[in-house]
Amino acid sequence: MAVEAPSDGDHVYLRLEGITKSFPGVVANCGINLDVGRGEIHAVLGENGAGKSTLMKVLYGFWQPDAGTISVDGKRLDLRSPSDAIRAGIGMVFQSFMLIPAFSVAENIALTLPGSGVLLSVSAIRARLREFGSRYGLSVEADAKVWQLSVGEQQRVEIVKLLVSGARVLILDEPTSVLAPHEVTKLFEILQTLRRDGYTILFVTHKLNEVMAIADRITVLRKGGVVGTLPRAGATLPDLVDMLLGERELRAGSFERRDHEPGGRAVLELHDLSVRSDRGRTGLARVSLRVCAGEIVGVAGVTGNGQTELGEAILGLRRPAGGRVVLDGVDVTRRSTAAILAQGVACIPEDPLRMGVAPGLTIAENMVLDERARYMPFGGLLTDWRAIRREIELRVENFGIAIPRLSVPVGTLSGGNVQRLLLLRALARKPRLLVAFYPTRGLDIAATRMAQELLMVSRNGGAATLLISEDLDELFALSDRLVVLSRGAVAGSFRPGEVETVDVGLLMTGAAKRHEWQASPASSIPGS
Amino acid sequence: MASVARLVDSRVLIPLRLLGLTALAFVAVGAFLLLFGRNPIEAYGVIFKGAFGSGYGLSEVVVRAIPLMLCAVATAIPARMGLLNVGGEGQLHGGAMAATWGALTLGALPRGALLPGLVILGLLGGAAAAFVPAFLRWAAGVNETISTLLLNYVIVLLVEYMVRGPWKDPMSYNWPFTPEFPESARLSFYWGTRIHAGLWFALVAITLFYLALRRTRWGYEIRVIGDNPDAAARAGIPLGRYVLLTMCVGGALAGLAGMAEVCAIQSRLRPGISTGFGYTGFLVSWLALHHPLGIVVMALLLGVLSVGGDMVQISLGLPYATVNIIMALIFFVVLGGRFRKSRSG
Ligand SMILES: Nc1ncnc2c1ncn2[C@@H]1O[C@H](COP(=O)(O)OP(=O)(O)O)[C@@H](O)[C@H]1O
Ligand SMILES: [Mg+2]
Asked: Using the beta-carbon criterion (under 8 Å), do A369 and B2 form an inter-chain contact?
């Protein structure tokens, strides 16, 4: 598809000039200029903390800038609240969705409209839903309850919500961070159709390949300022990396992988593990696998194919319907979570904010959550918070997390920072077994590298790691062995060197049949 | 953006906001009184003169604040982990019954042995009353709000039965109450007022609550559960055990309030030993946002209203319900203010 990039001021539709916004202790945006043409997909690219979300929230009227102006079509806007922005035709989908799970799709949309409930009946909304659904491939069932929807579908609801409210400028803040690969493809198709109809789209991301796939023009932010804006046609990956990271040098990308059989003993063994799931979700069907000390076993699969249940069964959060979980030779199938954790199991959960932290408690308080007995001796009477803070500060500093103070609630941190803290917390325990869900999700390039390196260090130190991810590149780079999980069953098991990413991708999505893989000698499970 | 609001809502802003909302409620009640042709200034004057106008009024404020503080802590402890204990009233009566049994059957013991025993019985009685809904919640997921509320009626009726039946004073000319407790079962009064040793129970309970919450692993784990039960479960915190623990400890403290009422104020068990202390204590806890110091302040404030209510009744001919309306409005306005805040953004 030919791309028309508005290259001069004549075509500027949306203009942000000199936007400055600071928070106590940080200047999140510093004199930012951004010109966006009508009907273009404009990528806003930047590492975590670059100020992307802040800039978008200023444009959405959520924050008032300390300085700077916003104009649309040459008309100056004075946005005092999101409702002003919506009135001006600007809508935003936040990183975390703002839907009410117990309400239906139509009700959720009715709720957020200006003059909602009174002016627009649910049946009228249903008609609009159908219209937008067929035109933009945004099909969602109007009467489905939001909690029944997948993340991708919820995102579509958010987008429809904007369209129904009459937005012409759509801001999507890291829309792909929550999506599985095939959902990303779908989203991109939707965005392209929207562009064709003249919608202007601000696409916020820190992922280079997405930018190259979808953007017409790219603006790169770094440390609260604009590094530059360039048309996609004139951008190359190395250029963008340089712009993103500035002077910082990237470390070498590949890790030494051991070709020899990991010598360690089996730490985790699953024998024919079956788990019933909550209604409508895939459980586990007779899954067997084995993770040895000093080994990373990657579990590839599209989210929702039993990963959650796998983690919960290992951690003792969900009673298996059949089979056994064995840790270091001890059957822990019926043990409590506390007992299992005490055996040296650590977990980086799939939804860090919801499963891993207490958002209202401080960073320091959250960092001791996994090791309460060690940090809080004698019922907590002898807790030395000062020493704890010093220890955490040191670790946080080494990992390069920019955090104001350890006494702020974790809920105020960005998703990427929460993820980093959880990684640190899990690895600080030097676990025997680490169950890591999407350990680099939401992290930028530099942090991803560092996280992967930490995982390798932990592996080389003898930890058994179960790495659950959708990112095939990551799985191939880190895993000693790979298992594909599809519809709750193991669809294949092999060494990364033996197969191509594409084939695993097909297996993940159920496009390839499983028997093709069972011919492979390495697929005997558990272990050899 | 609740997270941002949390940052902004510093220690200063929350009390200010509460004070403002409370004032708003008073204005609303004033308007209500005007509507019925009464002078609100005069009514408030009577309330505050009743409470602050004399040493007696002041002491009565404290007397009423005692069970309110204990019942508020009974609400606050489970509330910190997200449980709604509306059963303070029943737990108070449970404690009162247990203490009464002790006073009537162990009366021969010397005071130094009997009183500590009655304290323990009061605690146990309240804990037992809370154990039932806690157990149902833990074992069968029964909503504790409903079960604690319903159990209140059961326990209060049980008290009625006991004082009209097995425990009835044979010398009472058919009045429904137990015989008077022996001297050795009575708590001390101080300063020639009705302020009794229950005050120390309440203050010690609140202090321990504060310290436990901030300084112990229990308190830490309770706060984690209250903030995010999923994360707590994943960290191996036994949620079920904490349901039992917080509900029973809370119930025990409400039971202690009941013990103090029968062993100090009434010196016997009778119907109506509590003028809704359990419910008002619930209100106190929520007004204080389950904060220990806030509980002391709010218990005293509602103590003022309660004493003032008597005066309104006597000198203005207004029903005591006026005070209930004020309390309800404060509750309404404050909680409304809270929910509005947590919804915005
Ligand atoms: N509400 C806030 N309060 C304080 N600091 C904030 C707030 N929101 C963002 N920041 C800070 O502003 C900077 C930019 O954040 P953000 O715009 O979220 O970055 P990005 O979206 O590019 O990851 C970060 O240092 C972040 O910590
Ligand atoms: Mg962001």
From this structure: no
pLDDT, one tens digit per residue, over B272-300 is 899 889 999 998 998 888 999 989 998 99
Q: How many cross-chain Cβ pairs, A to B, lie less than 8 Å apart? A: 83
Q: What is the residue whose two structure tokens read 């320091």?
A: A364
Q: Are residues A184 and A292 in the same domain?
A: no
Give the domain-ending residue among A402, A429, A456.
A429
Which residues have CB less than 5 Å away from ligand 2 (the ion)? A 53
What's the rounded Cα separation, in Å, for the pair B261 and B56?
18
Q: How many domains does chain A have?
A: 3
User: Does A53 sit in the ligand 1 pocket, CB within 6 Å?
Assistant: yes
- From the alpha carbon of B7, which atom of ligand 1 is closest? 3
Q: How many CB atoms lie within 10 A of CB B165?
A: 9
Q: What is the mean pLDDT of residues B208-220?
A: 93
Place of tokens 């929550």: A178
Domains held by chain B: number? 1
Cβ of B332: how many Cβ atoms within 10 Å? Answer: 13
| Ligand 2 center to A441 CA (angstroms) | 13
Ligand 1 within 6 A of A316 CB? no
Which of B215, B233, B236 comes nearest A381 by C-beta? B215
Is the domain of A84 the same as that of A194?
yes
How much is the ipTM here?
0.80
Pick among A361, A375, A417 to test the B interface (most B CBs inside 10 A): A361
For residue A393, what are the CA distances in angstroms to A299, A406, B100, B213? 33, 8, 56, 24
Q: Which residue range(s) make up the domain with A446?
A: 266-344+431-528
**A487 and A340 housed in the same domain:** yes
Per residue in A37-95, pLDDT (tens digit) is 999 999 999 877 789 999 999 999 999 999 999 999 889 999 998 889 988 999 999 87
The boundaries of the domain holding residue B269 are 56-344
How many C-beta neighbours within 10 Å does residue B114 have? 22
Residue A490: phi and psi, rounded to 5, are -80, 120
Closest residue on chain B to A370 (Cα): B235
Residue A117: CATH number of its domain: 3.40.50.300
Same domain, A183 and A299: no
Q: Using the 3D structure, point to which of A399, A429, A459 is the last residue of a domain.
A: A429
Q: What is the pLDDT of residues B30-58, one digit of tens each?
A: 887 787 777 888 878 888 887 888 888 88
Is residue A9 included in any domain, yes or no?
no
